[in-house]
Design brief:
heterotrimer; A alpha/beta; B alpha+beta; C mainly alpha; A: alpha/beta; Rossmann fold; five-stranded parallel sheet; 5 helices; B: alpha+beta; Double Stranded RNA Binding Domain; six-stranded antiparallel sheet; four-stranded mixed sheet; 17 helices; 11 strands; about 35% helix; globular
């Protein structure tokens, strides 16, 4: 049954959909989104190294919607990770804009935010704005220093666990389970 | 006086430079052959030099040499301006082939106007000229020194330290020695002398070989492991190609500042009704500043933070080797590629905080460029007004004045150039002085025109530091008085 | 032999049933895959119909929570309705599954066993050490107990005479020891640091006091080092509050310097003509 779109709802053609493709056996795919130079490839390398599965795929993008050239070959994406640089408002803005292109189904445990770099006095976003963004989308937030190998491995391991669950490779656990057990970052009720 | 001057010059050097001095200072090189430089302190070295200096017959020469040595090493401490000499294409009868001849001629010329010492040294195929002008009133004061670098057989001079009082004389003597017609400000200045030379001598390099004489550095490809896949790699590759095409692969010369000035009518009256119907010219200035602006622009483009049409505009401007660009809305022939009014918006959007003032500035600038493009119908009222004379009350040439002996007006400079007075007022050389005094902040002259733009004056910083770029950039949208100029 | 053959026997016979088991599993997988595809098709259809629009308000958290609630309810319903899946009926499959589980648990248990054994070893060695310690401590305790008893006994006996005799005996022994040491020291010092003879004195005097009056100095008897040391010692022990002795002509300055430089004697900081013995006993 289709309903009419009211004035606040817009249809996005290039949305990222969680279930539009069939899953491939034992394959897990993660997408990392963030502006250029934020450390996506370093994180991706850390993830690939920490994982033992040969069918892990890590895709990186600077913005959504993804370019259409490969949309046919692209496998179904199990988890999306957004990276925000806490010193650059451009990265925040890009992430905000990219969030418009994510289907709501992803927000039930398949999305995660990573904030990099400690904000300094002179150049920073408000930390509150990042945490507010995460709360608005009901997702969890990690902090990471992209230059430190130890940080990267720790976050990579956590992401791998989440990815395993999102791809359905852990019997009995659904992403919603982990999602429901996370708490709000800012104690504000809406 | 000589001794104090020498001491002051010597003290400026660092201890690590002493071997360099000993090697290159020709006046005192003989006496230095026995010097042991291990663990020598500054004071000791200075004393030693002073002792040897006492017996010197020609102290001025030695001082001049040392000064030039210092400048060669630390040329980045001074601000160099590039001037172009319009050479009269005559025969080679006056071709000065050696430094000595050049020096003699120059000295003769300068001496006819000023009490100065002139010294020329040739170093790595360029002439380094030092003119030390003694102050007429205070004989004991240290001389004010002008340094000029000239590449022989080209038209370019790099000048630093030129004071307004001596400017006319010095430039006139140089023009005469070089068989020139007049000297023109190239609108190019910076701290790194080598970069300026590269820019100026390699004016015509463009496109993929845009290197200004530098050597291309190898492109480093990032190798990703198998399972990592960049979704935007086609875009990235396109961008990299574009950057390589337009900016070249070599390390770009270092410029500290690029300034764009625009002079047109205010067209954003939908947002600022108060300025509607105002016909007065509206001055805009955009300045890019940083340790190496060209590299920064390239990195910004490579990082995807600058929109594509704008890059062409900036890239092409490298070929005109200016770093202050005054656009006259009157000229429609300029080769600035601005395909639509959208282009500047995208770039400016990154330099101005998104949430403050953006709509206004967007439309404002969009309309400005629109008006620039439609300028043919509006140009008439302004072409009659002589450029700066009305707007800059301070700098008007006072024709009624009798030229005093030492302070000659610009009007007289025009007489000197080719023996006839020039009436043309918007020649480029007219704009040298005020432009060279251009400061970043607004001067009080612009009160009347500031009203509409007061809230558009923003100094906002959004730094985009990339992992692989080492420049930080600030863009400012200012209103400052500008000058119409033809190039 | 018979047992071996029977053990090998099942392996040979069951290759057929293995194939059958594989077939069963494949069928099972195919069924599940078909289900997945059907669900997928359904999802795509729903998506096309519903369009799942994204609202453009800034805080989609309400929508997300609503969606989450819906999903949770759906998941609970599904889980309630579904019977727990059981293994297919094929014996081989069940056997293999159980075997795998058992092997996993056996492996886990073996690891645990190894770990526990090593821990036990550690604990044993600790116990040994503690026992040793205990034995030693007991010995110390017995000795102390004896001493305590003796002291108590003596006190109880109230026989001061014995105590006094003990003390006197100790005192004599110590005095004898002291005298012996002093004698040794005196011999040593006398041998190596004798009193300066006339020629040495004269030479020294010439060097250091050229203008002095010869006659006055000649009369003075210069003390040997041993006497200086004796004086210092006596002064130090007898009057510790004023342990300084005055240097006068009898003290040969080189000896004084020697003592000061080796740290045996110290000058009085307020009065350079006084020295004292360094208080080694403090």
């Amino acid at each position: 049954m289709s309903r009419d779109l009211n004035q606040f709802e817009t249809l996005r053609k290039d949305e990222l959909l969680p279930f539009n493709k069939l899953p491939i056996f034992m394959q897990e795919v993660m997408l990392i989104v963030g502006i250029q130079g934020i450390g996506k490839h370093a994180l991706a390398k850390a993830i690939v190294e920490s994982s033992t599965s040969k069918t892990l795929q890590c895709r990186t993008a600077t913005h959504l919607p993804l370019p259409e050239e490969h949309s046919a070959e692209r496998p179904r994406i199990d988890m999306v990770v957004f990276m925000i640089d806490s010193r650059s408002s451009a990265s925040y803005i890009q992430v905000e804009q990219s969030l418009q292109y994510i289907n709501r189904q992803y927000f039930l445990g398949k999305i995660c935010f990573i904030a990099t770099k400690v904000p300094t006095e002179t150049q920073n976003l408000e930390v509150e704005s990042i945490t507010q963004l995460c709360d608005d989308h009901g997702s969890c937030l990690f902090w990471m220093d992209p230059t430190s190998g130890a940080d990267r491995t720790v976050v990579a391991k956590k992401l791998l666990e989440m990815l395993n669950i999102s791809a359905g490779l852990k019997p009995g656990i659904t992403p919603l389970l982990t999602d429901c057990t996370h708490r709000l970052l800012n104690m504000q009720s809406f | 006086m000589d001794a104090t001057l020498l001491k002051s010059i010597l003290r400026r050097f660092k201890i690590a430079d002493y071997p360099y001095i000993i090697e290159n200072w020709k006046s005192l090189s003989k006496e230095f052959s026995d010097v042991n430089l291990k663990h020598v302190k500054k004071a000791d070295f200075v004393d030693m030099v002073m002792k040897k200096f006492k017996h010197k017959s020609n102290p001025a020469l030695a001082i001049a040499e040392l000064d030039i040595l210092y400048l060669q090493k630390y040329s980045n401490r001074k601000l160099w301006k590039v001037l172009t000499v319009d050479v009269i294409p005559e025969g080679d009868s006056n071709n000065l082939s050696t430094v000595a001849e050049f020096e003699n001629r120059l000295r003769k010329e300068v001496r006819s106007y000023l009490n100065a010492q002139v010294r020329c040294i040739e170093h790595q195929n360029t002439y380094w000229i030092r003119i030390a002008v003694k102050d007429a009133k205070n004989d004991w004061a240290l001389p004010s020194v002008v340094y000029i670098t000239h590449v022989p057989n080209t038209n370019y001079l790099m000048v630093t330290g030129l004071k307004a009082t001596h400017k006319d004389y010095v430039l006139q003597s140089l023009v005469t020695v070089l068989n020139g017609h007049r000297v023109v400000d190239s609108h190019l200045s910076g701290r790194c002398l080598v970069s300026l030379m590269r820019l100026v001598l390699n004016k015509h390099s463009q496109g993929a070989s845009l290197s200004f004489g530098g050597s291309p550095r190898p492109v480093i490809e990032e190798t990703l492991p198998e399972n990592v896949y960049n979704e935007n790699h086609i875009e990235k590759r396109n961008r990299d190609n574009f950057v390589a095409e337009n900016y070249g692969l070599a390390k770009l010369p270092r410029l500290e500042k690029i300034v764009y000035k625009l002079d047109t009518t205010f067209k954003g009256s939908s947002h600022v009704p108060g300025m509607a119907g105002s016909d007065r010219p509206f001055h805009c200035q955009v300045k890019f500043e940083g340790p190496s602006v060209l590299e920064g622009l390239r990195s910004l483009t490579a990082a995807g933070l600058a929109a594509l049409p704008m890059k062409e505009h900036l890239a092409q401007d490298r070929n005109t080797t200016h770093n202050t660009d005054n656009t006259d809305y009157d000229k429609s022939e300029r080769d600035i590629a601005l395909p639509s009014g959208v282009a500047p918006n995208a770039a400016f959007a990154y330099y101005v905080d998104m949430f403050v003032v953006i709509p206004m500035v967007w439309t404002l600038i969009g309309e400005l460029w629109q008006s620039y493009k439609q300028s043919k119908t509006i140009s008439k009222p302004y072409s009659d007004i002589p450029a700066i004379d009305v707007l800059d009350d301070k700098k008007q040439p006072r024709r009624g004045d009798k030229p005093s002996k030492l302070k000659r007006r610009r009007a007289d400079r025009r007489i000197l150039k080719n023996g006839t007075t020039k009436q043309k007022l918007d020649g480029v050389d007219n704009k040298q002085k005020p432009k060279s005094r251009r400061k970043k902040s607004d001067t009080s002259r612009e009160d009347g025109q500031k009203s509409g733009n007061a809230d558009a004056k923003q100094t906002s910083t959004s730094d985009h530091k990339d992992d692989d770029s080492d420049t930080s950039k600030r863009g400012e949208i200012n209103s400052g008085s500008t000058l119409k100029t033809g190039d | 032999m018979a047992e071996a053959s029977t053990e090998r026997g099942p392996v040979v016979i069951q290759s057929d049933s293995y194939n059958k088991a594989e077939d069963v599993l494949k069928e099972h997988c195919e069924e599940m895959w078909k289900e997945v595809k059907q669900l997928q098709a359904k999802l795509v259809k729903i998506r096309h119909q519903d369009h799942s629009p994204v609202t453009s308000n800034a805080s989609p958290v309400l929508d997300i929570y609503l969606a989450r609630q819906k999903r949770l309810i759906a998941q609970i319903a599904v889980m309630k309705g579904k019977n727990p899946s059981k293994l297919p009926d094929n014996e081989v499959i069940q056997f293999e599954c159980v075997k795998e589980e058992l092997e996993k648990s056996v492996g886990g248990l073996q690891d645990t066993l190894a770990l526990v054994r090593s821990e036990q070893k550690e604990v044993d060695s600790e116990i040994e050490k503690e026992e040793h310690f205990k034995v030693e401590v007991e010995q110390v305790k017995t000795v102390l107990q004896e001493k305590l008893n003796e002291a108590l006994r003596q006190q109880q006996a109230g026989d001061n005479a014995i105590l006094i005799r003990e003390m006197q005996r100790k005192e004599l022994a110590l005095k004898k020891h002291c005298k012996k040491i002093m004698r040794h020291m005196a011999e040593f010092v006398q041998k190596h640091f004798p009193e300066p003879n006339e020629s040495q004195l004269a030479k020294w005097r010439k060097q250091h006091t050229p203008t002095a009056d010869d006659s006055s100095l000649n009369n003075v008897e210069v003390l040997p080092l041993i006497r200086i040391l004796q004086d210092l010692l006596n002064q130090c022990i007898d009057s510790p509050h004023n342990a300084y002795i005055d240097i006068d002509n009898r003290f040969w300055p080189p000896y004084v310097e020697l003592l000061v430089r080796t740290g045996i004697a110290l000058r009085n900081p307020h009065n350079t003509q006084q020295i004292r013995l360094t208080p080694f006993h403090l």
